[in-house]
Amino acid sequence: MQSKIKSRFNLTYAKLSAIGFIIIIIIGAILLSLPISSKSGEVTPFINALFTATSATTVTGLVVYDTYSHFSPFGQSVILVLIQIGGLGFMIIATMFLLVLRKKIGIRERSFLKESVNTIHIGGVVRLAKHILVGTILLEGIGTIILSIKFSSEMGVKAGIFNGVFHSVSAFNNAGFDLMGRYEAYSSLTKYSSDTVVNITIMTLIVIGGIGFVVWEDIYKNKHRFQKYQLHSKIVLFTTALLIICSAIAFYVLERNNLLADTGVKETILSSFFQAITPRTAGFNTMDTASLSEGSKLLTMILMIIGGSSGSTAGGIKTTTFIITILSVISLVRHSNDLNIFGRRLEDNILKRAYSIITIYITGAFIGMLFISLIQPELALSDIAFEVLSATGTVGMSTGITRQLNVLSRFIVIILMFCGRIGSLAVVMAVAENKNNVIVKNPLEKIVIG
């Protein structure tokens, strides 16, 4: 099916991915705008339904309505499905249906699937897709059981199970949507800031979902034998651990005289680690984001830019891109032409791709900030920057201005969330694909840099 479409319309994976997500978002927006999707039984304005559908499909978590207070169980279920599709990627979902229907998966479908999960080799990609589906069901299932037991004691069995499923899927896919409006609107997980079970379960799901499918496969095959992991997996695991530990310490230092001033030791530790993990595209919060110190907000924005890992449910420039830029600085300082890590040398053109991703990402974010500042000058620039980076990194954290955005500003955020999920570089490649490859090179000439 996909091969016929591709041959007829000459679709690249970037274009197919963009079109696929647009279709899913529009269907979701139509469903969410229906009276059956709201608790009041009224039609939800389409721009707000589109915003919510985009936020769910791009696993961002920015909301213009409190999910529990505004949406009916049907609407909440639509959001849940959109999160799952958006987190796994529609190509994996499509592969699942092809496998169920026992349809042949051709070379082009495998090629699309390879790009969807960001794996290096096309061989074994269908097996990897199966493992991803099984792993997702297993991990979300474990999270659901733990959270359902916890929530059922407070909400009743039926509501507890639904909340367990919803928050497990939302956490694993790094979506950040919650149903805690039953206690206080837009409160996220602040009620559970000192709850060990909820914190550890949500944090574990976020981290596992954010390290990437390829890393899962590596861990599954090689278990604890770290030396046998692929270089990609080693970089991801090392960088993820380093960012979590360093960021948790930094948040404690920055908030010890602010939000953590009157908390106990357990809550301080849990809050510091949660705040270190959630900005890397999860979107939940156990502390009031608007009340964070300026230093903590800056650190949060830096983590939102970095994001999770390639081929995962997370957004941002990705951990591998981040570590490559650090390696390039080290290489330049040492007057070395190579990028070396874990006893391996990286390919020469990877730095060009990394800097292209960062440049497009930052440029898009600044353009978004500029336009929203022009449209709504009454909003503080720091809040706009936080909102834009949260949207571009598909994070979902906000200082509270999402509901203050007008229609035009909301549309800008919708575009940013979409580009953040598809990948800024992929979007540019889809729009500006050039088939006329230039064989003859221009004359070489040096310029001064720095």
UniProtKB/TrEMBL annotation:
Gene Ontology CC: plasma membrane
Keywords of this entry: Cell membrane, Ion transport, Membrane, Potassium, Potassium transport, Transmembrane, Transmembrane helix, Transport
Intracellular or extracellular location(s): Cell membrane
Top-level taxon: Bacteria
Transmembrane annotation, as ranges: 12-34, 77-101, 132-149, 196-215, 235-254, 301-333, 354-375, 411-432
Pfam families assigned to the protein according to its UniProt record, in alphabetical order: TrkH
Gene Ontology molecular functions: potassium:chloride symporter activity
Membrane topology: Multi-pass membrane protein
Family matches, as PANTHER family: KTR SYSTEM POTASSIUM UPTAKE PROTEIN B, TRK SYSTEM POTASSIUM UPTAKE PROTEIN TRKG-RELATED
Protein name according to UniProt: Trk system potassium uptake protein TrkH
